[in-house]
Amino acid sequence: MKIVDKKALKRESIIQAALQLFSINGFHKTTIPDIAKKLHMSVGNVYNYFSSKDLLAQAIIKYTSQALGEKIHTVNMMDVSAEEKIAKIVDIYFTMARDKPEMIEYFLRVYLANREVFGEGCEGMVCVSGFITEIMIFFDESVSSGELRNQDFFSAFGLFMGYLGGMVFLKGEDILPKAIEEYTDDISRNIYNALKA
After folding, report:
1. Residues of 60-82 as b/e, b for ≥16 C-beta within 10 angstroms?
2. pTM for the full model?
3. H-helix or E-strand spanning residue 7
4. Is the CB of residue 103 less than 8 Å from the CB of residue 19?
5. Helices 82-99 + 184-195 axis angle, to 10
6. Residue 117 belongs to what H/E stretch?
7. For residue 144, what are the CA distances in angstroms to 78, 161, 171?
């Protein structure tokens, strides 16, 4: 019989509620009382789990980065080509944008737009290390196998994320004439062709 950690479940429910509210209303317009109200909790109880809104925001970016990192880790463990891995990573990202848009919106609307919140305790890429580490592993292994050309990680990462972020932005603005997942093949091919050895 599995033991349920009620405190961990409550903490995750706070993260999920805050994630939704922050991604819709932004960081500054969302208050701890808003989050408590959504959860039917007292404000004090929320503060028992997170002593400040900044710490809650940092916990959310760690949570979303870890969730995405775990999915990419699964791809990294597959015995397939770099080209196939790129397609799988693009599919994961686009599926998340479709099924859990708040995770991507949070990254774009809160994490990137409110860097002052992610200073102390989230320096550099500390709070997104779950995701970044797996992308680094993907690039390292693909370069070592000779499938992708050796280049500065940040150049390759910027290219990869530029494609993904741009498509998700267009989806969010309701500009794409087709569902985002219908672009997976084209975007994957473009990324692979830009990075291949």
Report:
1. bbbbbbbebbebbbebbeeeeeb
2. 0.88
3. helix 6-25
4. yes
5. 140
6. none
7. 16, 21, 34
pLDDT in tens, 58-87: 999 999 999 999 999 999 999 999 999 999
Q: CB-based contacts of 131: which residues, under 8 Å, 6+ apart?
A: 65, 66, 68, 69, 72
Structural domains for the chain: 6-195 (1.10.357.10)
DSSP 60-80: HHHHHHHHHHHHHHHHHTS-S
Neighbours of 122 (CB within 10 A): 19
Q: Give the confidence band of 55 by pLDDT, cuts at 50, 70, 90.
A: very high
Is-contact 143 149, C-beta < 8 A?
yes
Mind listing the pLDDT tens digit for each residue in 89-121?
999 999 998 898 888 888 877 888 888 888 777
**Which residues are bridge partners to 148 per DSSP?**
196
pLDDT, tens digit (0-9, with 9 covering 90-100), for 161-187:
999 989 988 988 899 999 999 999 999
